[in-house]
Write a structure and sequence with these properties.
- The chain has 80 residues and is mainly β.
- The strands form two sheets. Strands 3-4-5-6-7 form a five-stranded antiparallel beta sheet. A two-stranded antiparallel sheet has the order 1-2.
- It is globular, with a radius of gyration of 15 Å.
- The mean pLDDT is 84.
Amino acid sequence: MDKLTFTRSPTVTIATITFVNVPTILQYEDTPLIQVVKVQPAGFTMQIPIYHPDGTYLGKVVGSRPFMTRDGEKVGLSLT
């Protein structure tokens, strides 16, 4: 027998603003800048993209782990 599991996004507080069931906390035009994402072993965590001032997508940070794109490698981005 299959079961349905309903998962709600956690409550997130940034400064004094509380977000309830909001998967995208900050967005500019069509680009999400701060999101709540589901990660299998950890549950929920934050995801933040990293852009160059010219708009090139260089990488992202999921929780505390940084990930680099090929464009990030080309410009010599260093993950430390």
